[in-house]
Amino acid sequence: MDKFPTHNKKLKEWVSKMAKLCQPDSIVWIDGSDGQKKQLEEEAFATDEIIRLNQEKLPGCVLHRTHPNDVARTEHLTFICTKKKHDAGPNNNWMPPATGYKKAREIFKGAMRGRTMYVVPFSMGPVGSEFSKIGVELTDSKYVVLNMLIMTRAGEAVLRQLEKEDDFTKCLHSKAELDVNKRLILHFPEDNTIWSVGSGYGGNVLLGKKCLSLRIASFIARKEQWLAEHMLIMGIEEPNGHIEYIAAAFPSACGKTNLAMLIPPEGLKKKGYRIWTVGDDIAWMRVDSDGQLWAINPESGFFGVAPGTNSDSNPAMVETIKKDTIFTNVLLKPDGTVWWEGADGDVPNEGINWQGKPWKSGMKDAEGKPVLGANPNARFTVPIKNCPTASFRLEQHHGVPISAIIFGGRRQHLAPLVYEAFNWQHGIFVGATMASERTAAQVGKLGEVRRDPMAMFPFCGYNMAFYFRHWLNMGKKMTKAPKIFHVNWFRQDEKGKFMWPGFRENLRVLEWVLDRCSNKVYAVKTPIGYVPQPADIDMTGLHLPGDTLEKLLEVHKEDWLRELKGIKEFFRIFKKDLPKELWQEYEELEARLKSK
Ligand code: GTP
Ligand code: SPV
Ligand code: MN
Predict the structure, then answer these.
(1) pLDDT(1) > 50
(2) Pick from 258, 296, 500, 534: most CB atoms within 10 A?
(3) Would the pTM of this model clear 0.70, i.e. be above it?
(4) 412 and 503: one domain?
C-alpha cells in the first residue's frame, strides 16, 4: 500500500502531523477487508490484548478486558473546548482550546512509541448519504480498531468518499499509559476535532460514538438545523402490516437496547405485532421536504450492556451475540464461553472474572460483598445485521419517518408508566425536565437522581439552553410533528419491587402510544399530561396483582409539587439563556398542580 492511500491533502497532512506528535513505530491504514481484520486479531491474540473464545460455540467471538480503573465513561475528564465558555454552557466541563491542546499534547507526546498507529476512516450513516458524516480515527489500540469495524462503516469506501468531500472529524486516540490521572476526552467543536487520551473504554475511545455522533454532531446539527440524539429507533409493524417508527431517549443503561428489539409478549403476538430495530443508541433526525421528521441510526453495530441480558429479557440479543461479537469485561468460563450476572443458565462454578482473576460462584470480598464475575457495565459489540429484528431500512439513505418521540428515565417514584405531552412545546418541557437514577454506565454514585434532559446531559456538545431553543424551533419546521410521550418502566412499590414487568411487556405501552398518534384512544387529562385509562392498556396474558396498573398510572400532586423545586434549581443554572417558553411551561404546570 502507498504511504498515503488517499489524495485528500488535508488528511495526509493531519496524519503526518499527528504521527510526528505520537511517534508510532509504524502506520497502518484500515481498509475494512476481512484479511486485514484477521491479521489484526492474530496480532492481538499473540499479546493477549484480546482472547479467542470457543470457536465452536461462539464463532468469530473474542473477549477483551479493560484496565480495572477504566470500565465506564469518565464524565469528569470529558471537556468541551470552545473559545467562549458560555458556548459550552453550565452543562459541560470547559477548557479553552489552547489549554486543551496543550495539556493533551503533553500526554500524546511519544505515546505511541513501540506501537502501531492505525488510521481508521469511518462513516457515521451509510457511505455517501447526505445524512452521513465522515470521521477518521487515529488510534494505537487494536481493540478500538476491531470495535470501530463493527460500530461504523469503516475502510476503503470511506477513503474513496473522502476524495469527493473534504470535510471529516479529526479523531485522535491513544491509550497512552491508561493512567486515570493522565486521561482526557476533549472535544473541539469549532475545529471538528476530538482528542482522547489515557483510556481504552467504550464511549471514551470509540470516537465515532458519543464523541462524534452526539457531542460534535449536536453542535453541527444546531447549525445545520437537524437533531443528533441519544435515542433508539424502532419500527412497530401493526397487525395490518403498516409500520410506524418511534424514537426514544432514555439515559445510559435505562433500556434503549432492550426496547429497540423487543419480541412481542404472547398475549399481544396473536394480534400480529412485529418489531424492526433501526438503532439502539443514537438517532440523527431531520425535517424532510414532506414536513415530517426522518431519522437514521448513524451506527452499524450495538455496544450493549451485557449484565441482565438473557433469553427472557432480550431473546433477540441472545441470538445476535452468538457470533462475531467482542465481549468486554465479562466472565470467562473454563470451556471458553462467557457469562455475566443475569445470563441464561446456571451460575458457573468457576471462571476468570472481568479483572482477569480466578473466580468462584458465591465468592465474597473482605467486606463480605459478592465478587462479581462481570463488571456491571460489561458490554458486547456486535453488528446490527446479526440481529433477527434488524430493520430492512438500515441502509436507506433517508432513514425512517418518526411518528412519536418518547422520553424516559429510571424513577422509583413520581413518573407514571406513561403520559403524553399536551403539545410540542410542553413535550420539550417534559424532555428538558427528565431525571434518572445513576447507573453503572458512568463513573459516580449509583442510584443518585440526576437531571438528564433528553438523556443528553452528558452528550450535548454546547450550551444546553441553546439546545432547548433549537428543539423548540425544530417543532416549528414540521407540518406534522411527532407526538411526545414520557415513560417510566422503573416505578417501585413500598417494598422496593418494580411494579411493571417491563421488557417485552413494554409493547403494551407502545400500543397505547401509537393509538394516541392515530387518535384511536381517549386519555385522561392530568396536570402533567394525558394519562391512559387503565382499561385502554391491553393486558391480555399479563396478570398484575390488585390495583397495580392503576397505581402505575397515578399522578400524585404533592410529589410533583416537590419535583418542581428540583426543576427550578436545574433551570436556574442556565440563567437568562433558558428559553422563556420553558419557564412558562413551568408556571403553567405549577398552576395546574395547585388548582383543585
Ligand atoms: P446505553 O447503551 O448505556 O445507552 O443503555 P441502554 O439505554 O441501551 O440500556 P439497556 O437496554 O442495555 O438496559 C440496561 C439495563 O436496564 C439492564 O440492566 C436491563 O436489564 C435494564 N432494563 C431494560 N429494560 C428494562 C425494563 O423494561 N424494566 C426493567 N426493570 N429493567 C430494564
Ligand atoms: C452509554 O453510556 O450511553 C453507552 C455506552 O451507550 S458508551 O459507548 O460507553 O458511552
Ligand atoms: Mn448510550
Answers:
(1) no
(2) 296
(3) yes
(4) yes
